[in-house]
Amino acid sequence: MRIYKVGGAVRDRLLGKPVTDIDWVVVGTTTEEMLAKGFRPVGADFPVFLHPKSGEEYALARTERKSGRGYGGFTFHASPEVTLEEDLIRRDLTINAMAEDDQQNLTDPYHGQRDLEARVLRHVSPAFAEDPLRVLRVARFAARYAELGFNVAPETLELMRQLSESGELEALTAERSWKEISRALMEDQPQVFLEVLRACGALRVLMPEVDALFGVPQPEAHHPEIDTGVHTLSVLEQAARHEQPLTVRWACLLHDLGKGLTPEEEWPRHIAHEFNGLKLIKAVNERFKAPRDCQELALLVGEYHTHGHRALELKPSTLLELLQSFDVYRRPQRFEEFIAACEMDARGRKGLEQRSYPQADYLRGAATAARSVAVQPLLEKGFKGPELGEAIKRERLKALKVYKEST
Question: How many angstroms separate the CA atoms of 116 and 203, rounded?
């Protein structure tokens, strides 16, 4: 039995990055021997075991053969005869196909260290094209390591293009796709993820609603970058720069989808794009089964982000409707995330990345004013049921009028 540290742990150590998750591969043993040593099996599909003390995952060296469509369409073979090199060749990228023993002696049959130094994301073997999930994984790694100057090798991008055109991407489950997308959005440069997907044609397959934004112009006075797709990438870049949570980043990605539906004769204006985009946002939400908080915020930001930009001009009654839509009384955090998404939208414009956004504090103040209305005095006056609701609404409207006059 020989045990090796493999994959990301080796890659990140060589890059000088913190190592968090460690994967181990075990060569020259059987399931029976692993069980005898106290390892606990994980699931029935793969020869993977949990260490009896550390709880870390140890996988038997294995080979794989394509047997069906999609991420799960593989047959695995694990035996004591499978070599470390045979196990490594089934991995996606050369930089993930290295192993080291307990003395940190490196096994690198596919030149991963060379590609690390050259800052290249390169596939290990032609078998790369058998797994459609790898298109998303490579794009995610490109986003993760963009700051270090990594690029996708042209021949790997070509394989990704072939996968995108093959129909295999449609075989990916929503859960697997969302896992990669959500992780990519939380990288330091998530816009690179979208750029790579677009470069290989995968964005058109996975998110045609986002892909349709490229080449759609906006008024230059408000959008010096003009192109709606470029703007979307810039908004996402700002969201990452300001360390926004996943909910905000997802909303930033989808906020302008309605502009992709504007007839060309109406360009560069996009009247009612907020409302028109809701059905598209809903479709993308459902396609990837995004978590409920991500879905809700994306829809609300899509519908109301221009309200956020015009906050200082809104009538108190419109402001109240906005606050009601977000249920700021019971869900204040969601309104904070809306404000953040609006600010990222305002900053995601060429040359305006450092602009101030006074609307943010104004909206927070409005929410505070509306929340300050006490219910108890109204109860003491005898209001109840629907009448109580109307009375609260009237008092909140008065509070917002006072707030607007005082700012």
Answer: 26
Phi/psi at 134 (nearest 5 deg)? Answer: -65, -25
Helix H or strand E encompassing 57: strand 57-60
E strands within 171-296? Answer: none
Q: Considering only CA atoms, which of 230, 196, 204, 278 is closest in space to residue 238?
A: 230
More confident residue, 64 or 30: 30
Percent of the chain surpassing pLDDT 70: 97
Residue 70 has pLDDT above 70, yes or no: no
The Cβ-side half-sphere exposure at 329, using a 13 Å CA radius, reads 14
List, as one string, the DSSP characters of 169-197: GGGS-HHHHHHHHHHHHTSS-HHHHHHHH
CA distances to 186, 268, 349 from 220, rounded to whole Å, are 30, 8, 10
Half-sphere exposure of 11 toward its Cβ, with a 13 Å CA cutoff? 22
Nearest to 59 by CA among 92, 99, 20, 95: 99
Neighbours of 304 (CB within 10 A): 19
Count Cβ atoms within 10 A of the Cβ of residue 261 and give its class: 0-12 exposed, 13-18 middle, 19 or more buried: middle
What amino acid is encoded at 248 in this protein? V
Name which of 346, 140, 168 is nearest 255 in CA terms: 346
pTM for this prediction: 0.93
Which pair of tokens denotes residue 61? 């060296």
What's the pLDDT score for residue 48?
Answer: 92
Residue 318 pLDDT = 98
Per the CB < 8 A criterion, the answer to whether 61 and 83 are in contact is: yes
